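Protein Record: Sequence and Backbone Structure Tokens
======================================================

Structure line: whole-number tokens from a learned vocabulary of local backbone shapes, matched to residues.

Purpose: to set a sequence beside its fold so the mapping can be learned.

___
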Amino acid sequence: MAAPREQLGIVEAEGKSDRQGSSGVEVVLPSDLSTPAPMCPHGPTLLFVKVNQGKEETRRFYACSACRDRKDCNFFQWEDEKLSEARLAAREAHNRRCQPPLSRIQCVERYLRFIELPLSQRTFCQRCQQLLLPAEWEDHRGHQVVGDVSVTQLRRPSQLLYPLENKKTNAQYLFADRTCQFLIDLLCALGFRRALCVGTPRLHELIRLKASGDMKSNIKSLLLDIDFRYSQFYMEDSFCHYNMFNHHFFDGKAALEVCRTFLQEDKGEGVIMVTDPPFGGLVEPLAVTFKKLIAMWKEGQSQDNNPKELPIFWIFPYFFESRICQFFPSFCMLDYQVDYDNHALYKHGKTGRKQSPVRIFTNIPPSKIILPVEEGYRFCPLCQRYVSLENEHCEHCNSCTSKHGSTVAFATTVLFQIIPAKAQRMAALFVKKMFPEYIAIHKTARKQKQRKSNKMKMETTKGQSMNHTSVTRKKKRRERAHQYLCS
């Protein structure tokens, strides 16, 4: 996952905030646009508008779709701003300078030459994050270089490359092998033959690794990712340099056709999209992009009102459920906890500092998805789906309601939910929506307690006021008596 990550608490606040009537910056969806968006180094920009509670919309502006910090991409333009020809030319030149130094074709040619080299001449520069040909060794003298790069290392570039660490641009958190193996086994069990991996480089490489070593596995994979470094490890039919926030293929129509062909192969049968977007990214532009990929897939379908949907695994934190389902009503959330190798917090179960909040949203019926019992999941016969062991079936809701894998327990007057500390407010919103009768009882008891407390405060204040008045009157009488005696 290439992701502009923020701290979990900040992201969670974004995930549960209600867009209507709140203050902040909103993205204007493409259906509302009348003119094409200007380009930055990361492709077409997004149109934003700053909204303030109780006020009219302010001036709209364009900004980068991929970077949240203007230090990483300083593009900014008012929607109604008119630019001179000189400024437009300077912008185009800047966009070209920011592109990768090698074209996609050049990367493929270098890769083919590299794999023909003997093992002793296969080197990789860790400083430049680049495979080196013998003619380039002199230019990298003094750099930290890895030698004897094997075929296995070439097939697992996510272990050879350093993960990007800029949390506001494209920090990379890579699936743990446990999660990858679960996803691959699940895809095989469901009968998929192709996987479109959008921002999931480790899953892509393990699918290809399994296919090369296991004759029973015939799953093919295509990776779409914004990290151009992967272009030096893959042929054109297995990697496309891609921005998922604006559906932009950096290598133009050629890459677009690669994706189209992949989705429409076998008339669109046997393909699934697996995506792990940035948690700090807005759901709205992601949903627009995914709907464009769905439309591309549907172009290869028969036009007889086919109700079928492109199967999707959207991997995202559980507190974004309402916003994802707003755009994809057929999606449901699985209890499976997705964890990452290089993230201290996003760990499965109780072994990490915090249980992972990352889940799988899918339009595949959950009754068809088997979660591993040995990892703490069980089958609920009433819900007809696999859930966490701690997710007990609720008689009031007739479902397993826990979103985070912890126990939900009922009391006679109020609902108590044992949850991680940072999810307290989200749980309160969930309880308020799902169990209004318990909230009403709790509110009544709280109001009675507040009225009693206010009454006691008023009596105390009244007593203090009366005492103060009595003391003042006695003091004035003494002063008058003293004046009379002295006169």
The first helix runs from residue 8 to 16. The chain has four domains: 2-97, 100-149, 167-388, 393-434. The chain is about 35% helix and 20% strand.
